[in-house]
Amino acid sequence: MKFSENWLRHHVPTRASSDELAATLTAIGLEVEDVTPLGNALDGVIVARIVSAQKHPEADRLQVCEVDTGNGMVQIVCGAPNARAGLVAPLATVGANLPGGTAIKAAKLRGVESFGMLCSAKELGVDPDASGLLELPADAPVGTPLASYLGLPDATIEIKLTPNRADCFSVRGIAFDVAAALSGEVIPLDTQPVSPQSDAAMNVALEAGSRVPRFVGRVIDNVNAKAQTPVWMAERLRRSGLRPISFLVDVTQYVMLELGQPMHAFDKDKLDGDVVVRPARENESLALLDGRTVTLDKDFLVVSDSRGGRGARAVALGGIMGGSETRVTDDTRNVFLEAAHWIPSAIIGRSRKLGMYTDAGHRFERGVDPELPGAAVEYATRLILDIAGGVPGPLLDVTLPESLVSPKPILLRRARLARVLGLSVADDEVVRIFTALGMKIEAVVDGWRVTAPSRRFDIEREEDLIEEVARIHRYENIPTHTPGGALTLAVEPEERLHELAVREQLAARGYYEAVNLAFIGNDVLQRWGMTDQLVPLANPLSADLAVMRPSLLPGLIEALSHNRARQQDRVRLFELGRVFAAGNPPVETPSLAIVASGNAHAEQWGEASRPLDFFDLKGDLDALIAWGGEPRRWAVHADSLPGWLHPGRAARVSRDGETVGYLGALHPRLAKTLDLGPDVHVLELALDPLLARRLPKAQAVPRFPAVRRDIAVDVPEQVSWSQIEQAVRGTLGTTLAELRLFDRYSGKGVEAGRKSLAMGLILQDASRTLTDDDADNCVRNVVSALGAACEAKLRG
């Protein structure tokens, strides 16, 4: 937010210096980013008029001008391209010292005497424009000191606002905070209703429901659209970062900066019939004021008229920008002013979707006072009538009362205020602070009942009121105390691994930790097919951050893509964080995700290069599982896969039969959509099952020797090793000390669609030495169980 210091002082008079004012703004949370002094050294610079301008006899680019100073004529040699007879411009007289250090003296330029200098805005330090002389209005009083005429010296102040302080996107909004901090008082603004002088009006219909609960407008006929914007208004706009365009446009911009309410002026004669506020139609087009034609969808809101049928033609993009077909021009005679209340969720992300930025959209995204439209139209009407004349019609205020939320009183307890701040603030000071901030305050037995103005969306609970007292009373006045009490060490449970162990294990295996935002955009999730059980944000910062993430993978894949775009072919990333699913309250699940691409191993001489595959990632998973000491409780299955995984190179991960995650290659269709290659592999699983740890138990060293029997079985290709392992262990129980898979074969000698697995059975009994008959019996039982459970056949 950029504004003129003098403009702010006009609303809240204060004796504080510019430095003190800037320091105060920063101290109360309105961080000052830049202060640019304007016109601090303009003694000797006056308003002058060029009476004649003749070509210099010795220089093509110079002119010899006769200039009226209001106290006689002087000769000035000038090289500005816009110097011409009749122009009113600043003149630095002999003896003046300009802000840049230039001392003005009488001089000869190519043999012609010059007694002063006609100045550009840049030379005067009031604007960066150096393209020509600063052109002043034709009625500017010649001979008047320029500083007096332009309201100088002044300064442009630019502040950085946090998203919750939307009320400070206006000079008056800032003025209330300054008044509270400097014990001042905001001068009341004259927004008294303008008496209508005609019956001219427009019919307005609201068809967007609660998204636009209020629309205020007024017709003003016989306006002089060619009226010149007053110097005081043009300078305030210029010092706030806006270029004056034309009076009717400047008025709406001026009211937006002063009050905080974006407005728009339509040429009434270019509107047909009723005005309708409605959702845009799919693929509806609209030509905007900036010259672009945009294609809209149903997420946008528009203002339309009745050309082609009621509500048929869109004439403005709601809350963002007006349309070019109905804009005001110098030929406009009749004006329709509008100021509406668009709720933030109806505007957020729409500008970004079109690749544009507007001051109106920026304000509506953060919230504008719903009570402001009426006052803004009244104020703008008075300015237009005073400067450009006209005949005002009645004020049109179309409202959906049930969709407007009024501030509710909040109880601020005196004891709670003292306990949170650590000091006691005098009752009179508390009342002064809230009164200066424009809040209604009522004393009760144990404190106060405070009602915030409708512009303060950030005041919702008692803690917000305490923050206001702390902010205005100044944080530096709050005492600092060293924490007391004994510190206790938390005892980590032995049945659970610490997350640090997972981080260290992955780092040891060549992965780097990434940290992404917990918010993500709907469009990203739609590409992944993750559209169920989402948790949308009530007031997102942008459309790209509108939903709580249901998975860690989309964010990690974006980080991987970012790295690969910067010539990092081999990427290994992991993230530990929470994912969210719809519920009451939303369900939060701690999760781990891994993404990897490129070669399986870093470039080296000892091993041939090969691309990463499914089994590399499964090896990383096995290493993490082994860390907890219970690998037998885990299994992977090639069924029930989500749509974002490759159906032939992925698996479902379970623990104790319950699905806890997935791993494998991305689906080729998704990889193509994300502009990734086929080598990207991912893993995501719930973190809590991974952190569960089996406590070690001491056991005696076996007294009796183990017996080994090797068998090879022929099984269908779709049978997984985990199914076979489960059948073998279920059959042999404690007699099986270890099961080892040492060969897999398919091809000649094995039926198509089947595979041969060779395994070693390590058999051992704690009470006796197993005989050959015992071992053979175990083998027969295993073969029988595998035949029944897995359609296995013993190979010879």
UniProtKB/TrEMBL annotation:
The keyword Transport is assigned to this record: no
Q: Which reaction does it catalyse?
A: tRNA(Phe) + L-phenylalanine + ATP = L-phenylalanyl-tRNA(Phe) + AMP + diphosphate + H(+)
* Residue ranges annotated for the FDX-ACB domain, each copy included: 702-795
Q: Where is the B5 domain?
A: 405-480
Q: What is its EC number?
A: 6.1.1.20
Q: Its quaternary structure?
A: Tetramer of two alpha and two beta subunits.
The name on file for this protein is Phenylalanine--tRNA ligase beta subunit
Q: To which species is this protein native?
A: Dyella nitratireducens
